[in-house]
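Worked Example 4.2. Read the sequence first, then its structure tokens.
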Amino acid sequence: MPDPEIAPRAKRRTFPAKYKLHIVEAAQRCKNPGELGSLLRKEGLYSSHLASWRKLYERGALKELSDTKRGRKKNPDRQSKLALEKLERENQRLRKKLWQAEKVIEVQKNLP
């Protein structure tokens, strides 16, 4: 049972760029009175959402965002540096294993 003293914190909704683009294009197709309001009610959106998304659409920002991913971009230099370090560690481990195998072979040759 949840604690009645603590009010749940509201979570902001986020919308992907493809969804925004779809809604703006659907809103452009609304010609008759009441269609736009019906669309917004059906999707659970406010007119302010549509107004800001239209501004983005006019600037071309929605089409640019539709294929991009959020977050930190991968640094190819860092990736190659990490890969190089990993390969060097593996090389060191294999050299040690080879040295041990050569010693075992050397001892086996000396046995009568």
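Now turn to a second chain, presented in exactly the same format:
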Amino acid sequence: MITWSASKTETPARVASWRSMEAVTRGAKDEWLALFAEDGVVEDPVGPSFFDPEARGHHGREAISAFWDKAIALAERFEFTIADSFAAGDECANVGTITAFLPGGARVDTEGVFVYRVGPDGLIRSMRAFWETERAMATMRTE
């Protein structure tokens, strides 16, 4: 599910972000990967993390596919709540919360800023997610 409370003005980067979130909510890995340019990069989160200890990002579709397997595939489902979105040039920054529903009934809310940059072809050149692991993990709960 995606709850969008932000601007609905269509820009190429915002449309790409919508498509990305929709693919993730449906577990459509191949569709999600097809949204990225061959040389695209994912930094989620930006900086060192358990998904990317050396903070290099995931470059190219093969590495982005591996990121899906390490991060996205672990959840049973995702919900996105976007409170605001700022579009400028070939980028947009979405402000909101991603809720991951994990096996065993656990839930984690990740608040952050999610920045998408697209090329002239509308494919995602980069997706950078600014969020804090400790803040997200502090929201873990079972329901």
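Notes for the reader: The chain has one domain: 2-142. The domain at 2-142 is CATH 3.10.450.50 (Nuclear Transport Factor 2; Chain: A,).
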